[in-house]
Structure formats: C-alpha cells, structure tokens
Amino acid sequence: MHKKTYGIVIVSHIPELAAGVARLLGEAAKDVSITYAGGTDEGEVGTSFEKISAAIAENEADDLFGFYDLGSAKMNLEMAMETSDKNCRLMDAALVEGAYTAAALIQAGAEVNTVLEQLEPLKVK
Fold this sequence. Notes:
The chain has helices at about 15-30, 50-60, 70-80, 95-105, 110-120, and strands spanning about 5-10, 35-40, 65-70, 85-90.
C-alpha cells in the first residue's frame, strides 16, 4: 500500500468522543489515515501530550490536519506538533464538522488549499 498523502488527528478530552469522531470520519473517508487521542493517561477527562504525540506518530501520513475540542487539547496538540517531524496544521474549526469536511475532501483528492478554503466558514473564533 502506498503512503497516505494527508491524514487527520483528532484530540478530545473524552476518549469515547475522540474514538467516535474518528469512526464517523472513517465512514466517509476509508482511504484517509485517521488517528486520535482522548483523555488523560489515566483515562480521565483531559488530554495527554504522550497520547497526542503517539496519535501523530502512528498516522500513516506525513502531512496532517489536527482537530481538537477545547483549549487544553489545543495547547497539548500544538506542543506535540512542534516535536513531530511531520507537517502538522492546527485546525481551529468545529471539531466534528471541520474534521468531517476535511476527511471527505481529502478522500476526494482535494488540494490542501481547497480543504483550507472549505474549513474557513467552520472556524471557531
């Protein structure tokens, strides 16, 4: 199998939410590498730098779109992205709608600029 061009990383404070969003995206984008991190290392509500770093590393793509649910997830995702050799884009878009839109567009072969353009109305300000 060839290397995936673009991938998606989902980060949530709740393990089940991260897994659920990834599952939803997988239905629309079967060929897109989607990884996720949810909860703390102890399985509590929160986020884990280690889990997020692992989700980035485990993603088959070298060019990633990172989506998150709340502030500390953003902070840990930013730190994990900075320590990765992969090209990671932090997406300040609505988690479910933004990630789903990106996944569907990547699946359809859209260029990065098209994905970013389509996510613009979904940005959280």
